Amino acid sequence: MRVKIGICYYDSNSEYASLFNNDVIIEYAKSIPSVEQVWIGKVLELTASDLASLFKSSGVEKIVIAGDYPGLIKNKIDLAMKLAGLDHKKLALASFSEHALFNGQSTEMAKAVLLCAVNGLDFREVAKPGHNTVNKDTLVIGGGIAGIQASLEIANGGQKVYLLEKSGTIGGHMAMFDKTFPTLDCAACILTPKMVDVGQHPNIELITYSELKEVQGDAGDFKVKINKKARRVNISTCIGCGNCAEKCPRKAASEFDADTSLRKAIYIPFPQAVPNKYLIDADNCTYVENGKCGVCVKICPVPDCINLDEKDSEIEINVGNIILATGFKVFDAKKIERYGYGQFPNVLTSLEFERLINAAGPTEGNITYRKKDKKGNWVFKEGNGEPQSVGIIHCVGSRDENNNKYCSKVCCMYSLKLAHLVREKLPDAIINEYYIDMRAFGKGYEEFYERIKTEGINMIRGKTATIKQKGEKLLLRSEDMLNDRMLEDELDMVILAVGLEPANKASELAKMLKITQDGNGWYNESNSLSDPVNTNSGGVSIAGLCQGPKDIPDTVAQASAAASRVLQNIINNKVEKSVFDLSFKDIENRVNELITEVKS
Amino acid sequence: MRYTINTDLKKELKSYGISEWNDCFHCGNCTAICPLTENGFLFPRKGIRQIQMGLKDKLTMNVDPWLCYYCGECSQTCPRDANPGELMMTLRRYLTSVYDWTGLSKKFYTSHKWEYGFLGFFALLVIALFAVFLPPAKAIFTNPELFINDQGGVMINSLVNGITNIEFLHFVEIGDLTMAILVALLLISNILNMYNKVILKDKSIRIPLYSYFVEAWHLLFNFVAQPKFSKCDKKNYWIGHLLLMTSYTIMFTVIVALLPKFQIEEVKPWYNWQRILGYYATFGLLFFLVYTAIGRFKKSDVKFEYSHVSDWLFLILLGLTTITGILIHIFRLTGLPVATYFTFVIHLAILVPMIVVEVPFSKWSHLAYRPFAAYFSRLKKAAYKRNHKIEIAQAA
Across chain B, what does the average pLDDT equal? Predict the structure, then answer.
């Protein structure tokens, strides 16, 4: 007996909507034999009773809601089915955003998802790509807190881990932070022991100053080519004495200090770096530029330790699983010109301020003005004077249709933390926070917010629109909407709470590893509720910020989860292949097989 | 004072322009980026809030929309793409209909039938008046050279059959003045209504009597030069608007108050002050029309992205009036009496409905409301200062 099926096609216009060719899918939906009627669009505008009469008149018995987010209209259809006297249990969802986010073949997969829903089959059950055996070694990409945590979990489980890091040291952004919210623990005190563990762990092979070049093979057996950038210092013989850096004539902005201080061209990123070995910044080295200099080679007490002519090399490793933990970069505040970041010396990003207030930062934790030194460099220096009023502007680049639409999640909390740290160092300073909504989303965070409010910090609901330089001061224009007035505040220093964005080479990596990104560039997990660490690409897991903005506790939790997935694969010697290997034809055949099985 | 929440307010506002009022999440960016906002006059956000909450009474007491000159900076930087600039424009349309006690404004803004109907009625009325009372002299078809003066131009006041040229001029002048008085009476009554809503109903302030006189010069100053507009960051808008404004005012004054001096039989040399004035005004109008029409077609700027029917009507009517006016001038100079007569009739058939319908009830009423809004806001400010002594404050 043929069951008449109606399909409500619903295009929610979400960030994924552009991946699907609606016309093709609708055409296909109409061609499925049991489908009686396809209702396109308008579902939102019609009331449940209107829909019910539509259902009745068409004589359908079962309804499928298809679209990128069909769950959004499920309640209405449910009600309409009840009104139409249909068994509302005969309602199926075909969610494209949940199952059909595929590189380049999303439309084909959407068709498959629809077919499964029409036949009452669970797509995840049908689309099982099969398993591979597993190479026990694992590659973790990214040496921030997520990568460190995941590596340690797997290594402590007794398995070999390669930890790949593009800069000269592991540690990532967390190493740059002063304190963590809401407990105000010292970030370095938590992170550096873990970094040392990584450096000393017999199961972890650290590959720093290197980048992923090529990935071949399938889940369980990847052949990975890694480009080892020329460090120009032999990592196994360098004793870290520092003589070279002392004599090196060239200076460059320190990445670790978020460009707030200068380091030499031969440098250790920061004193607790792992590995604690020097490296040469080729972009700023006189020898690399014109072949003249080589002071470091002459002064180095270890023979043949520094090789200024070293070239990039390539290594190849075989791994079974890959964990991506590539983190984030901060929003470029120069994009919002009216804040004058980059023009006014005392408008800082939060990351810069994080270094400024850090006891290991450029001023040993004293908050000072940024002023021009004798050589014409803008620097923070003791003796520059202390600002007596500081403003913190929330949501810079986040929740903004002109920049990033999403909420970066952590900015409210770190801004509160920074306000507290300023209050600690400058007890008499005026501190203003200009916020839109205060998002204290985690355990203990609301309490933290309440505590900060009692510390004499002005919480102003109203985003600053413009910053202008007025003599030595900065003039901020904002609306204080809770007090129904305009504010023109003259402050000494302004901190922009910049949002988070996917790391620079995120999409390159996504292509190499065949995983998908959402509209904002964050990596897609295969299911945000039930499978938050796996991706649609077999054997590749994600952890930390690269999946979306989150705070340190969430990052660490996700890293551990990713590690547990990998360990599970290794213990079972079985890893699920990539669903990408399946084509629409495969799924169609499987569906037909299953239907005939049920019938017989 | 108690305010009633009007849940239908958003629905009511729909036909005045942008209908999406819920996008705003109240970050305050628009108010803070606007160089014209000050304590006591926080817009656009506050107005949006009043709409979202359905505070109709408060909204009608709000003078703020008239203080905005729509540079579009708020819309450009709005993190929600809520388009606060256009929301202000929509509110100005709405307030025009609120001030108008006849209810025609509301009809014109919300129903095309009413607007086109009224425009068409007055156009036909003008044509009918000409057909019945001022038909063309037969001789302009048979002996056109009779109507050409020594300089080779058409004697415009002699084209009409049966009356002398002095009588014709008088006829037109009376029509002119009747129209002007009617329009002025309507506008004045609406402004009194505005005064009642904006000042009298606001019980929170008491305006000191002397400020009515002290601040009075703002009325004139704002009418002539729109000094507030010049405070916007985009200065060329102000210059463009000033060009239009002066051109329009010159034309209007010339047509209504000084007609006998301008609609004369002899053709003056080009450097005569009357002609120079006319050319300046024509150039100003043309420049503005072309610039705005291109802008609205191409949506080249934030303020042009959304065009209400009244915006297009404004351009079309003013454009047709200008073009027919230029044609009359050309036909006169080239000595074509028939063409001059009929173009003159068409010219008036566009001009009269435009002035009777658009000026008191539609887009052009801002000509009157803006200077008064500036004046009222000064009065309020004076009262605020006396009562609370408010100034822009530091947060601490």
Answer: 88
Tokens found for residue B259: 């007609």
Q: What is the CATH number of the domain that holds B89?
A: 1.10.1060.10
Distance CA A569, CA B228 (A): 70
Q: Is the dihedral of CA B7, B9, B14, B19 positive or negative?
A: negative
A430: distance to nearest CA of chain B, Å?
7
Residues of chain B found within 8 Å of residue A464, distances taken between Cβ atoms:
32
- Examine the pLDDT at B261 and tell me if it is beyond 90: no
Rg of chain B over all Cα atoms, to the nearest angstrom:
24
Q: Are residues B231 and B378 in the same domain?
A: yes
Residue of B nearest to A435 (CA): B27
With respect to residue B369, please indicate whether it lies within any of the assigned structural domains.
yes
Are A485 and B25 in contact (CB < 8 Å)?
Answer: no
> For A570-594, what is each residue's pLDDT tens digit?
999 999 888 777 888 888 888 888 8
Segment 76-95 of chain B within 8 Å of chain A by CB: 76-81
In B, minimum Cα distance to A399 occurs at: B79
Show the CA angle centred on residue A512, arms to residues A507 and A515, nearest 5°. 65
What pLDDT does B267 receive?
82
If asked whether residues B138 and B85 sit together in one domain, one would say no
Report all structural domains of chain A as residue ranges with CATH numbers, in order of start. Answer: 5-127 (3.40.50), 130-228+312-327+503-581 (3.50.50.60), 230-311 (no CATH), 330-501 (3.50.50.60)
Q: How many domains does chain B have?
A: 2
User: What is the C-alpha separation between A463 and A471, in angstroms, rounded?
Assistant: 23
Angle, helices B112-133/B309-334, rounded to nearest 10 degrees: 20
ipTM for the whole complex: 0.86
Inter-chain contact B29–A477, Cβ cutoff 8 Å? no
Domain boundary among B62, B83, B99: B99
Q: Which domain holds residue B30?
A: 9-99
Q: Which residue has the tokens 């628009």?
A: B30
Using pLDDT thresholds of 50, 70 and 90, give the confidence band for residue A287: very high
Residue A376: Cβ-neighbour burial (10 angstroms; 0-12, 13-18, 19+):
exposed
The minimum CA-CA distance between A343 and chain B, rounded to whole Å, is 19
Q: Show which of B99, B115, B134 is a domain's final residue.
A: B99
Indicate whether B128 and B261 sit together in one domain.
Answer: yes
- Report chain A residues whose CB lies below 8 A from the CB of B39: 485-486
The reported pLDDT for the residue numbered A424 is 94
**Which of A400, A430, A479 is nearest residue B31 as measured by Cβ atoms?**
A479
- pLDDT computed for residue A402 by the predictor: 94
Residue numbers in A near B71 (CB within 8 A):
none
**Tokens in use for A20?**
């699907």
Question: Is B141 inside any structural domain?
Answer: yes
Q: Say which of B27, B32, B45 has its CB closest to residue A477.
A: B32
Position B266 pLDDT exceeds 50 = yes
